[in-house]
Design brief:
339 residues; alpha/beta; Rossmann fold; 5-stranded parallel beta sheet; 12 helices
């Protein structure tokens, strides 16, 4: 199949979802809890946003004739098993937190660490849908600190007596708006991830260890910018990649350093206000409109141009087994990354 350079048919493949009709009716802002897991956050939300923008995309849960297929790396084994049904399509794999689907023609990455702008493309995550920003009437008050995310992604030091004592001694409130990865039902219903109305500082440090977290997105930073809330974040690549000045966020490597940063913000109203103003400006780069445009350029401009390149055509003619073997070999060569 040759991709239509002017108007490719784009299918967003959401495997293991039975009721697609219901999912197509989801309102991303109102029904944000439907998007809490990785596959839906990336694929369903992308479908909803692009369709609303008038772009030609369709949501499916099975193979259909298509020139471009967007899928999640979590489903790479399923695609490999059904590879005969995708012969000729340009496969665009969203890597997420997982290892890349080696047979994909293009991979979408959550940060730019391994991106080459050709077959490895950085795409910012969508902002938290339904986001309610901080009440501006709170001024530069620093009282409520919050972590929003999955429980396993929070340094256990924030559950320690030392942290609780710090919170108590300084008259602070500490809120962990978190959930387990496999949460469902009441656990998800209790989440208030979009609500920043009374949050004064976002605190998000992962558990200590040797993992560099090179695949993670900068979502917590971008959401904090959009919410008008200063953030104290760990030393991660995704955050540092976006950092342009000290006003973007305060970095901390431990709960002790986070506590010092909280007191820095509490004692410096000018710094607090400057970080809020800076964050609102930076958030514009990651608005729904801005990210929609990036997806439009990727799916309807970049991929058709790439598909017309002779070198890409040679790769694309390989079988899935050959692609996987070649990709594994390439990653063993000096200077190649392993991800």
């Amino acid at each position: 199949m040759v991709v239509n350079v002017m108007d490719p048919q784009v299918t967003i493949l959401l495997v293991n979802e039975a009721d697609l009709a219901a999912l197509r009716r989801v309102d991303a802002e109102r029904d944000w809890r439907e998007l809490y897991n990785g596959e839906r956050a990336w694929l369903l939300q992308t479908f909803l946003r692009l369709e609303r923008a008038g772009l030609s995309v369709r949501l499916e849960n099975r193979p259909l004739a298509s020139e471009v297929v967007l899928f999640h790396a979590k489903h790479k084994r399923w695609l490999f098993t059904h590879r005969a049904d995708f012969r000729g399509a340009v496969l665009v794999g969203v890597r997420g937190d997982m290892r890349g689907p080696l047979f994909a023609d293009v991979e979408v990455l959550q940060n730019g660490r391994f991106a080459d702008g050709r077959r490895l493309v950085f795409m910012p995550h969508w902002l938290q849908p339904g986001l309610a920003p901080r009440d501006a009437r709170r001024g530069a008050r620093v009282q409520t600190l919050a972590f929003k995310g999955f429980e396993r992604n929070l340094d256990p030091g924030f559950r320690s007596p030392t942290w609780r004592r710090f919170i108590s001694e300084h008259g602070l409130h500490w809120r962990t708006d978190s959930v387990g990865v496999r949460a469902e039902g009441a656990d998800i219903a209790a989440l208030s991830w979009p609500d920043y109305t009374d949050v004064d500082v976002v605190v998000a440090l992962r558990p200590p260890g040797r993992r560099p977290h090179l695949r993670k997105p900068a979502s917590k930073l971008c959401n904090a910018w959009a919410a008008g809330v200063p953030a104290i974040l760990g030393p991660e690549y995704a955050y540092r990649e976006l950092r342009r000045s000290e006003l973007d966020y305060l970095e901390a490597a431990s709960p002790e350093e986070a506590a010092a940063a909280v007191l820095q913000l509490r004692g410096n109203a000018a710094l607090y206000t400057a970080m809020v103003d800076n964050g609102r400006r930076r958030a514009a780069e990651y608005s729904v409109e801005a990210v929609t445009e990036r997806w439009r350029r990727l799916l309807f401009e970049h991929i058709p141009r790439l598909a017309a390149d002779p070198s890409f055509a040679r790769w694309h003619r390989l079988s899935f087994v050959q692609r996987r073997a070649l990709a594994r070999l390439m990653r063993l060569l000096p200077g190649r990354h392993v991800s």
